[in-house]
């Protein structure tokens, strides 16, 4: 075994496209062998953390769905963008206008949302209407110093009925219209990976990220000094971006 492999202490697992494909009745379909893989990783003694950009539900609801699909997972094992965004909002005294999925709103329950001085955008799915995007645009362009916080910046993801546009596409629209640069909370932001590693108590060179997104999962982890593996499930199987690049084990 290579020296670097012997040094591995922990794994970060993406969820959508790695453990399951979301969508449809029941909220999704497990990917064959993934529940068993989680069990084996846990039994191996390696530290494990689930590192997701999921923003269509609170962590509680999301984890309950995954448990129902047969996964051994708890809320305390999940690093997700919304709680990280809430910490950032509180630290900086920011009051968000939310353009997010209805099921994510409870994550922001104790955040002051009166008289907004920033916009937070997540994967709002059906809430990405013209009216809602335009409302967010008006809030943002009306601010003296526009602050746009994006929960991840994925281009698209795979659901059971096909590929879906992700938050990154809408984030770019607001960036363009308001001539601002969004602050990304979630993968591929370095700080997000660093917080997941800190929660595991593992250094970057001791960890491997496993995901289906060549930019958010693989690229982000490598920027952080970790090794990363791209799986062939999820968006990989339907995408051209990243096709042909199956393994990216080196951070350079
Ligand atoms: Mg994924």
From TrEMBL:
Required co-factors: Mg(2+)
Top enzyme category: hydrolase
Ribosomal protein recorded as keyword: no
Catalysed reaction equations from the record: diphosphate + H2O = 2 phosphate + H(+)
Annotated Gene3D superfamilies: HAD superfamily/HAD-like (3.40.50.1000)
Signal sequence coordinates: 1-20
Keyword field contains Nucleus: yes
Keywords associated with the record: Cytoplasm, Hydrolase, Magnesium, Metal-binding, Nucleus, Signal
Location of this chain's protein in the cell: Cytoplasm; Nucleus
Pfam families documented for this protein: Hydrolase_6 (PF13344), Hydrolase_like (PF13242)
EC number: 3.6.1.1
InterPro entries for the chain: HAD-like_sf, HAD-SF_hydro_IIA, HAD_sf, LHPP/HDHD2
Main subcellular location: cytoplasm
MF terms in GO: inorganic diphosphate phosphatase activity; metal ion binding; phosphatase activity
Listed transmembrane segments: none
One Gene Ontology cellular component: nucleus
Family the UniProt entry places it in: Belongs to the HAD-like hydrolase superfamily.
NCBIfam families: HAD-SF-IIA, HAD-SF-IIA-hyp3
UniProt function note: Phosphatase that hydrolyzes imidodiphosphate, 3-phosphohistidine and 6-phospholysine. Has broad substrate specificity and can also hydrolyze inorganic diphosphate, but with lower efficiency.
Protein name: Phospholysine phosphohistidine inorganic pyrophosphate phosphatase
Organism: Phasianus colchicus (Common pheasant)
């Amino acid at each position: 075994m290579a020296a670097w492999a012997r040094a591995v202490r922990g794994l970060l697992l993406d969820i959508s496209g790695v453990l399951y494909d979301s969508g449809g009745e029941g909220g999704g379909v497990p990917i064959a062998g993934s529940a068993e893989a989680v069990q084996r990783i846990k039994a191996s003694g390696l530290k494990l953390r689930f590192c997701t950009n999921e923003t269509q539900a609170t962590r509680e609801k999301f984890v309950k769905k995954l448990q129902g699909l047969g996964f051994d997972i708890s809320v305390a094992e999940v690093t997700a963008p919304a709680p990280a965004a809430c910490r950032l909002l509180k630290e900086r005294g920011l009051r968000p206008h939310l353009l997010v999925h209805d099921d994510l709103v409870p994550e922001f329950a104790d955040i002051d949302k009166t008289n907004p001085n920033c916009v937070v955008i997540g994967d709002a799915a059906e809430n990405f209407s013209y009216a809602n995007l335009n409302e967010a645009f008006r809030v943002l362009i009306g601010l003296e110093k526009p602050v746009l916080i994006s929960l991840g910046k994925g281009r698209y993801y795979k659901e059971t009925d096909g590929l879906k546009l992700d938050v990154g596409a809408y984030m770019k629209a607001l960036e363009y219209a308001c001539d601002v640069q969004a602050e990304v909370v979630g993968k591929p932001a370095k700080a997000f990976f660093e917080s997941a590693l800190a929660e595991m108590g593992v250094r970057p060179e001791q960890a491997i990220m496993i995901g289906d997104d060549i930019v958010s999962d693989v690229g982000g982890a490598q920027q952080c000094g970790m090794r990363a593996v791209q799986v062939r499930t999820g968006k990989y199987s339907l995408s051209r971006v990243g096709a042909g690049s199956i393994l990216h084990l080196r951070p350079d």
